[in-house]
Amino acid sequence: MRIHVVLRYVSLALLLNAFFMFLSAGLSLIFHDGAFLPLFYSGLVSALIGVFSLIFVPSTDHITNKEGLSIVVLSWLAACLFGVMPYILWGGPFDFTNAWFESVSGYTTTGSTILIDIEVLPRSLLFWRASTHWIGGIGIIIFVLSILPFIGIAEIVLFKTEVSAVVQQNFHVRARRAIQILAGVYLGLTALETLALLFCGMSLFDAVTHSFATIATGGFSTRNASIAHYHSAPIEMVVMVFMLLSGINFVLLFAAISGKVKNLFGATVVRYYVFSLLLGVLLVTFNLALSQDKTFVDALRLASFNILSVGTSTGFATTDTSVWPAFSQLILIFFALQCACSGSTSGGIKVDRIVVVLKAFINQIRLVMHPNAIIPIRVDGKPVKEETALKNVLYVMVYLIIVFFTSLLLAALGVDLLSAFSGVVAAMGNVGPGLSSVGSVGNFAHIPVLGKWILTAVMLLGRLEIYALFIFITPAQWKGTIAY
Fold it and tell me: Which residues on adjacent β-strands are paired with residue 205?
């Protein structure tokens, strides 16, 4: 593996960081909020190191499988590491561990925070914080797809068990076309939500930062009470619509915009995604109405927003879900594990995998009843290979095993059971808030230092789809590495 080729591409992630740091520094001059120097110095360091690699490392059109995987993983790690600088230079509650936690949570679009009082941060630093969501939400999709035509098998490593036919076709189109589709949808959704929130009465600053967080399904808010701060049903409706859209495969959204609406509503994955959310909302609504003496309308409003928020891995909140009945909390846990569709900015196991696993289970029952029959697994009328179904089942098993053992580690550090388990589920699914002390009105400030590092590792595992990070750290990945 040619380390200089890897570094050249990783430098692009640093330059992207630098651009948003300088943009945030410019806002600091406008707001006069005192965060200019931390943001400017951070941007300068990121830009100098990024430009250095581009100038002194020759370009190449050929990238091997190992190099492609290393580029993607190192780009995430480098972005998170350099994203720490604005927080540390500003100070306040940010020692290195807290700054690393906030940075990783931002880039992976998790949305968990160590901040007890978000509103004391300068607005320019809050903009930078929101920008890490937006970079992370679009960055991994655009960056990986731009490399795919050169790295072949790395497609399996990074997107191993995607089963949607439309998604698979997207992997075979030219990189430039794929980038245009995904970037167009991403930018379009961000712009539309910003305008809609402005119309509902949000300030321009809040509208932009909350749109960044929504479309990236991240959840960082500029307010301590998240969306509940605004006490506005129209704002909640707008955010819900765009959370729902952001959880759908972007290629299907593009097809619908292009007039192929059947591709969207005819997809089994999308139908399951919408139906499962609707069912979850109804169950929680009745549970809240019956157990907490709420009117049906109030219960429906709370259930709709918070189920959609967790079910798309966004992580905004309008109430303290930690005081919900156990029945409703378990439904939240389910959606925090499942989340939305592949090909979107959502985290979690993904709806696509759940659909294949369910179909594989039903198919197995049929085979037990009719052992001599040949019954293929089908999604949208197209057969799914047994190998693909097995990969989905294995991924779900590995995912749940990681959740269990990391929850065990947090519990060993003294974190209470519900906080440990729900915190890990939220970190692995890039959801944000958990339950109990790390719930929607809580934070992760009290988690032990080692626990925060464990959670950030889990965030990266979830965002990089497990295998990529594990392969990256194996000795075989680095065997034969050369400098030039």
Answer: none
What secondary structure, in 3-state letters, does 10-33 show?
Answer: HHHHHHHHHHHHHHHHHHHHHHCC
Query: Percentage helix, strand, coil, to 5, in the chain?
Result: 70, 0, 25
Residues 6 or more apart whose Cβ sits within 8 Å of residue 235: 197, 200, 201, 202, 227
Beta carbons of 295 and 289 less than 8 angstroms apart = yes
Residues 30-65 have pLDDT tens digits of 999 999 999 999 999 999 998 987 777 766 666 777
Lookup result for tokens 């409003």: 301
- The whole-angstrom separation of Cα 368 and Cα 360 is 12
The one-letter amino acid at 141 = I
Q: What angle do CA 162, 247, 337 make, to 5 degrees?
A: 70
Token digits for 482? 């050369």
Cα distances (angstroms) measured from residue 334 to each of 16, 146, 295, 403: 35, 33, 25, 13
Q: Is residue 104 classed exposed, middle or buried when 0-12, 13-18 and 19+ CB atoms within 10 A define those classes?
A: buried
- Which amino acid belongs to residue 109? T
The pLDDT tens digits of the residues spanning 417-441 come to 999 999 999 999 999 999 999 999 9
Q: Are 136 and 216 in contact (CB under 8 A)?
A: yes
C-alpha dihedral sign at 120, 317, 422, 161: negative
Distance, CA of 166 to CA of 176 (rounded, Å)? 17
The model's pTM is: 0.92
Residues paired with residue 383 on neighbouring β-strands, in sequence order:
378
Burial of 124 (0-12, 13-18, 19+ CB in 10 A): buried
Structure tokens of 35? 């965060």
Residue 97 CB neighbour total at 10 angstroms: 18
**Residues whose CB is less than 8 angstroms from the CB of residue 15 and which lie 6 or more positions away in sequence, other chains included:** 46, 47, 50, 51, 54
